């Protein structure tokens, strides 16, 4: 199978994630969109590693996974805290920093 | 001189300075005894001076010049300035004049200021003045002299505006201070030129190498020194402050604005003699300034009805004589200082007499409201009369010896100069006789004009207390005998020779007997006219209509108008246009820039909507732009 197909898949997944982030209001779903984008990136990195016969991309993918795991923990904690404080899971309700 | 005596020199400055510091720091707690502390400090200074003088008189003329250094003041590589004191006949003459007349005036002030609740502060300033003046004359370099120079300016400012609860007094103090600043700039520029040319500021180096220096430079330095002298000594064109300075208490006018501080300019020029001799053009300008001022002051003095302002105009005129003498070169230096000393005595005496008259007349200064006071104030009348005869130059009073020498010296020389300077000095003597006689007759002779008009019954003129009388008597004795005592055998000229150098006697263009008799004739004529107008004729209590010259002289020959038109208004216009330019060009530029940054910020603030998804969209858009740029660069490369 052509390796570029993996890249196409990664692009599609990234676009899906980005669309989710931009269009959905539910924080949990937005969060899932971000995860999707991260994993699309991972897929692209691994594919490039195979294409160039170099493991740098794979190592980088591991780093992204580790960071993503940490980010999930922190992110979910923040979401839960905000939900408790504001009784809402909508990203649009979190706008205290606006001008 | 012995080293012990030399080591006393700093104490001449330190003693009154300590007095001033104590009086100012201890404050109101010293109100009850503060004035006596001031007198004590001044007397102690005089005694120290006397010890040094006696020691100096005991050695040969060549050994009378000595310097003693307390330490290094400024040490900047090749340039060093010492805290050095120069003891020589010239500085000792000033030390004795300042401390002796100063002490007398301290004593006088104890009584004169007895009703003033700030008498202690007054004595602190007087002490400060004595310290600064002695520093001025004792310094062995121009920079230390400048410290004293500024110190006397400060004391003068503080004392002119001593009664600063009255606005005109405060304004007069400010005027004196500002006009003196103009002169001080001259001294600063002169010092910069010296530093650039000679690399040092001490008298020894500067005056020693003046002869070899470029004449253009020495002329510039000489003119700058003259500017400084004009500021301090109230000479044209910086003369306008002296009349207003009479706003200060009368003892101040006597000590600072007649006997000592205003003569500092003459001291500066005589001290810088070798420098001026290396610059004949500057020397000529000095003489011209002196001649002009002596006539200017004399003319103004003829029309003043304010007794203190008439005396101030006279001071200006007499210092004009000294400047004229100082501008005549080594032949004149000794006579300039001689006249300075005798003038210090009789003018201080006249001022103290004026203070005594004011004391009797409830601080009235209008001579048109005086008259017939001789019988009521006999001691004042006699002491002022002796001072009057002295300033007229009647033999054998002291003014005769000093002023006559200056007139004779003014006639020495070649070309047009002796005729012009000599005539000016001669005319000045005649006018002096007129206005001083006018002052004397208006005050002591004629009708008792203070009995006319309102409040006359309340006036009971009485003689001043002993503390005021005795200083006047002592000064009057000086006015009588000092000239003869110092002139006998040219004693004073020889005394100053270590500093001024030996000057060969030169014959004037006119025979001396003719000059002397012309002078005396003019003096008698001037006095006689004044006698007819102010002792015999009735003196109106309000200024009568008068010809244009008299009207101009009443307002100081329009000196304030000239200053306002030539300096003040253009200066104000300049500052206003500077402010305008600053606002429209400089400020507008920066304010515009700041406004632009502010508007940019406001616009950017609009992007902070608070919606996380919008931020995400912007981030994504930015990512897209970056990718696009990279792609474009990659394909182009």
UniProtKB/TrEMBL annotation, chain A:
Pfam family, one: Oxidored_q2
InterPro entries per the UniProt record, alphabetical: NADH_UbQ_OxRdtase_chain4L/K, NUOK/Mnh_C1-like
Reaction equation(s) it catalyzes: a quinone + NADH + 5 H(+)(in) = a quinol + NAD(+) + 4 H(+)(out)
Predominant place of localization: membrane
Keywords: Cell membrane, Membrane, NAD, Oxidoreductase, Quinone, Translocase, Transmembrane, Transmembrane helix, Transport
One MF annotation (Gene Ontology) recorded for this entry: NADH dehydrogenase (quinone) (non-electrogenic) activity
Bilayer disposition of the protein: Multi-pass membrane protein
UniProt keyword Transmembrane present: yes
Subunit relationships: NDH-1 is composed of 14 different subunits. Subunits NuoA, H, J, K, L, M, N constitute the membrane sector of the complex.
PANTHER family named in the record: NADH DEHYDROGENASE SUBUNIT 4L-RELATED, NADH-UBIQUINONE OXIDOREDUCTASE SUBUNIT ND4L
Family label: Belongs to the complex I subunit 4L family.
Protein name per UniProt: NADH-quinone oxidoreductase subunit K
Originating species: Isoptericola haloaureus
């Amino acid at each position: 199978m052509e390796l570029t197909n993996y890249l196409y898949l990664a692009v599609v997944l990234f676009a899906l994630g980005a669309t989710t982030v931009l269009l959905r209001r539910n924080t949990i779903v937005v969060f899932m969109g971000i995860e999707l984008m991260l994993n699309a990136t991972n897929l692209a990195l691994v594919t490039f590693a195979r294409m160039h016969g170099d493991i740098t991309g794979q190592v980088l993918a591991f780093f992204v996974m580790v960071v993503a795991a940490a980010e999930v923990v922190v992110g979910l904690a923040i979401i839960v805290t905000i939900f408790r404080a504001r009784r809402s899971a909508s990203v649009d309700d979190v706008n205290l920093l606006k001008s | 001189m012995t080293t012990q005596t030399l080591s006393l020199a700093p104490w001449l400055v330190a003693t009154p300075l300590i007095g001033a510091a104590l009086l100012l720091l201890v404050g109101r707690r010293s109100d009850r005894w503060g004035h006596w502390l001031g007198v004590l400090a001044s007397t102690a200074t005089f005694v120290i001076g006397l010890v040094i003088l006696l020691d100096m008189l005991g050695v040969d003329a060549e050994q009378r010049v000595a310097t003693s250094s307390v330490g290094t003041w400024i040490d900047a590589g090749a340039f060093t300035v010492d805290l050095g004191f120069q003891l020589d006949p010239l500085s000792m003459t000033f030390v004795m004049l300042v401390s002796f007349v100063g002490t007398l005036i301290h004593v006088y002030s104890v009584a004169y200021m007895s009703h003033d609740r700030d008498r202690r502060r007054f004595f602190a300033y007087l002490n400060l003045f004595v310290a600064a003046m002695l520093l001025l004359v004792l310094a062995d370099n121009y920079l230390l002299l400048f410290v004293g120079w500024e110190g006397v300016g400060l004391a003068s400012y503080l004392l002119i505006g001593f009664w600063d609860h009255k606005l005109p007094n405060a304004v007069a103090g400010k005027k004196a201070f500002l006009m003196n600043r103009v002169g001080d700039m001259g001294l600063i520029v002169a010092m910069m030129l010296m530093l650039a040319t000679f690399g040092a500021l001490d008298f020894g180096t500067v005056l020693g190498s003046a002869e070899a220096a470029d004449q253009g430079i020495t002329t510039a330095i000489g003119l700058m020194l003259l500017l400084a002298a004009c500021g301090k000594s109230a000479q044209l064109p910086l003369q306008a402050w002296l009349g207003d300075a009479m706003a200060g208490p009368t003892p101040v006018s006597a000590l600072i604005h007649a006997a000592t501080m205003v003569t500092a300019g003459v001291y500066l020029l005589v001290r810088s003699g070798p420098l001026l001799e290396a610059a004949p053009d500057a020397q000529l300008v000095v003489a011209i300034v002196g001649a002009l001022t002596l006539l200017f002051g004399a003319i103004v003095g003829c029309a003043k009805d304010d007794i203190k302002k008439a005396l101030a105009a006279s001071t200006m005129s007499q210092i004009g004589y000294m400047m004229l003498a100082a501008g005549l070169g080594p032949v004149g230096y000794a006579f300039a200082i001689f006249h300075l000393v005798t003038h210090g005595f009789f003018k201080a005496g006249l001022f103290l007499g004026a203070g005594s008259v004011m004391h009797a007349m409830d601080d009235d200064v209008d001579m048109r409201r005086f008259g017939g006071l001789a019988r009521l104030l006999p001691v004042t009348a006699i002491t002022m009369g002796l001072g009057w005869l002295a300033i007229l130059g009647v033999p054998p009073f002291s003014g005769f010896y000093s002023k006559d020498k200056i007139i004779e010296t003014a006639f020495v020389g070649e070309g047009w100069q002796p005729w012009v300077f000599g005539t000016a000095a001669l005319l000045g003597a005649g006018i002096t006789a007129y206005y001083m006689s006018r002052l004397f007759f208006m005050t002591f002779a004629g009708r008792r004009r203070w009995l006319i008009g309102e409040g006359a019954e309340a006036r009971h003129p009485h003689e001043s207390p002993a503390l005021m009388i005795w200083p006047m008597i002592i000064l009057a004795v000086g006015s009588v005998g000092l000239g003869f005592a110092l002139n006998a055998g040219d004693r004073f000229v020889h005394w100053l020779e270590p500093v001024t150098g030996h000057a060969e006697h030169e014959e004037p263009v006119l025979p001396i007997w003719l000059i002397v008799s012309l002078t005396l004739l003019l003096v008698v004529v001037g006095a006689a006219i004044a006698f007819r107008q102010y002792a015999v004729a009735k003196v109106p209590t309000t200024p009568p209509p008068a010809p244009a010259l008299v009207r101009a002289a009443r307002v100081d020959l329009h000196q304030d108008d000239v200053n306002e038109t030539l300096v003040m208004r253009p200066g104000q216009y300049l500052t206003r246009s500077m402010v305008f330019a600053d606002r429209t060009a400089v400020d507008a530029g920066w304010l515009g820039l700041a406004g632009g940054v502010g508007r940019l910020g406001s616009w950017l603030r609009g992007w902070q909507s608070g919606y996380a998804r919008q931020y995400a969209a912007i981030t994504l858009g930015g990512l897209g732009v970056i990718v696009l740029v990279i792609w474009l660069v990659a394909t182009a490369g």
